[in-house]
Amino acid sequence: MTARVGVVTFPGSLDDGDAARAVRIAGAEPVRLWHGEAELHGVDAVVLPGGFSYGDYLRCGAIARFAPVMEKIIDAAGAGLPVLGICNGFQILCEAHLLPGALTRNQHLHFRNRDQILRIETTGTAWTNTFQPGQEVLIPVKNGEGCYVADPATLDELEAQGRVVARYVGGNPNGSQRDIAAITNQAGNVVGIMPHPEHAVEALTGPSLDGLGFFTSVLKHLVGTPA
Amino acid sequence: MPRVVVDVMLKPEILDPQGQAVANALPRLGVNDVASVRIGRRIEIDFTGEPDLDRAREIADKLLANPVIEDFTVRLVETDEAAEARS
Hints:
The complex is a heterodimer of chains A (227) and B (87). In chain A, 23% of the residues lie in helices and 26% in strands. Chain A is α/β, with parallel strands linked by helices and 227 residues long. In chain A, the strands form two sheets. In chain A, strands 2-1-3-4-11-10-9-6-7 form a nine-stranded mixed beta sheet, sandwiched between helices. In chain A, strands 5-8 form a two-stranded antiparallel ribbon. In chain A, α2 (68-78) links the parallel β3 (45-48) and β4 (83-86). In chain A, α1 packs across α5 (212-224). With 87 residues, chain B is an alpha+beta fold. Chain B contains three helices and three strands, in the order βαβαβα. Chain B has helices at residues 17-25, 53-64, 80-86, and strands spanning 3-10, 41-45, 70-77. Chain B has a three-stranded antiparallel beta sheet, with helices on one face. The radius of gyration of chain B is 17 Å and the shape is flat.
């Protein structure tokens, strides 16, 4: 049976269409989820897309965290549902305390939009198991508040537990501590990533097809997960 | 009715690039004796009844501030109307 991957639309989401498209190209069925509906429609995984949910009011992701759909996602993530937060989705996962740390204003204050090399540090997550450890991938980055910060103890713990999923290579676009571009929770089912794998799934529009690996990974993960 | 004011500031150890940008602009105003500028957020809350500081603290902790990167203080201030009514 085809895996069903939910893509949430918040007011102000931008990349929900591209995320759904990436899910489809990877071979799964995208299921659009609405922020105001506390219902996951039986999806097998969820993508929180990029954009500016609730206009980035207060802090990026701070208000989206309290959306009705998020209550369900937070519960389901605790029970092992694979969740990928991209850009604003990463910010929402941090605000929801599904991931540690926070994302703050880029240190240089400029919005950065460029193709970025990342090194995949951990393949033991639901979203990176089709990569090779240490593999370098090319994926667009586009953010104004992508500077990952956490206290030193949290950063050390992330490193020690192999929970840094990807790092920026060839220049850190936002000042993130220890060049962190993506992290995961302890169970490896929740991943937050600042760059945009959903924008690198087709030769026509992306700098590479490297982003597809994140979406095919979750399909591989689901096949290996007993229902 | 007094108003609850919540001040949210980035923790001292968190870099404040906005504040730095403002500080860097000051010499252009001829101001050269400012060592640092940090920018925060002031939130004013009016309760329908008596102001509830504990409730305000809960709101601040859960929503208004992100305890990972920010500290907050909660205090009561007199609103102008309240001050006027007494005078």
